[in-house]
Amino acid sequence: MLRRIAGHLYWAARNLERAEWRARLVDVNYHLLIETPPRGSEPWSPLLAIFGERETFASRYATADEDSVLNFFVLDLENPNSIRNCIINARNNMLSLRHYISSELWIELNTLYLDARGWTSGLFSSPGVFAFFSELRDNFYQLSGILQTTIPRDLAYDFIQIGMMLERAEDVARMLDVKYHFLLPKLEDVGGPVDLLQWAAVLRSASGLEAYRKRHGNSIELKKVVGILLFDASFPRSARFSLDQLAVSLKRIAVERAESGAESQTSSQSQTQSSSQSCTTSPAHFTALSQLDASLKNDRSLQVLKAGLHQFLLEIQDGCAAIGDEVFARYLRSD
């Protein structure tokens, strides 16, 4: 597969996943503000800190109030990472590659693109913020279901999966960080009703509240929340699950490259070359992936909380950025 094609598939998936998680992050912040009294004069500003977009926002908006932040994160065409721009970029990346994806996926993505082009700030008044994000979440569920049930497990799927899972692992760490920054409770509030309500909202935003309750019951404990969102290998939106799926796709790509190399060489030469390619392109030889995978392999929730959850979440985000750099250098760079 040409690097250009692989790059379009990878970035389309990353943009779609980014749009979904940004919607989830804004949504959970909105619900936390409704369910708990805000601390500080600008309760929306922590979102800007999480994404490192304070300066960009401040250059064009006077205050970080609800209307301004919603516009910046959802509608702003001058913000390259707004939900609208992410959807537009995903659709445009797929536009020339429609023969690599199913017609069902293209129709659903193009419909969402057309809807996003027509969004206005009036959507937050009618049908309202809650209804808007609820409908948007359903749109993303439909796209995910169509992708998983209509795309053959080939190289195109694997590059889509790599982009999606890498973005997901990074964004679940960002979502946990929203709670850390947003209403980091006073010492006397830790474990209290407000604190637990906020962590339940975080689980809900990751579609993980029911999964948590099935496994741990109705009692919300921070250690178990961190465990299911970061270390759980069976929960589809955890960082650990995402990295496991990422490794599966990287392994398939490595095998495909090895087999392609073998077909074009003599039998004796192909064995040497195939072995060499398999060694240098296996997931184990993505240094950043190996390091991050090792830190998430076993549930270290208590250890992480004692050492500092915020710092560990930053390490996950940095690790994902490093994995992205390695994937780009190996498969996507056009020299």
What share of the residues lie within helices?
Answer: over 70%
Radius of gyration: 21 Å
What would the principal axes of the Cα set say about the shape? globular
Number of domain units: 1
Secondary structure category: mainly alpha
Unreliable runs: 270-281
Total DSSP E strands: 0
Question: What report would you give on this structure?
Answer:
The chain is built from 16 helices and no strands. It is mainly alpha-helical. It has one domain (3-332). The two termini are 15 Å apart. Mean pLDDT is 86; it is low at 270-281.
Summarize the structure.
This protein has helices at 3-35, 45-50, 54-58, 66-75, 83-95, 103-117, 129-150, 155-182, 193-205, 209-216, 222-231, 239-263, 267-281, 287-296, 301-307, 309-332.
Task: Please tag this protein with its features.
mainly alpha; 16 helices; 335 residues
Secondary structure topology:
Blueprint: H1 3-35, H2 45-50, H3 54-58, H4 66-75, H5 83-95, H6 103-117, H7 129-150, H8 155-182, H9 193-205, H10 209-216, H11 222-231, H12 239-263, H13 267-281, H14 287-296, H15 301-307, H16 309-332
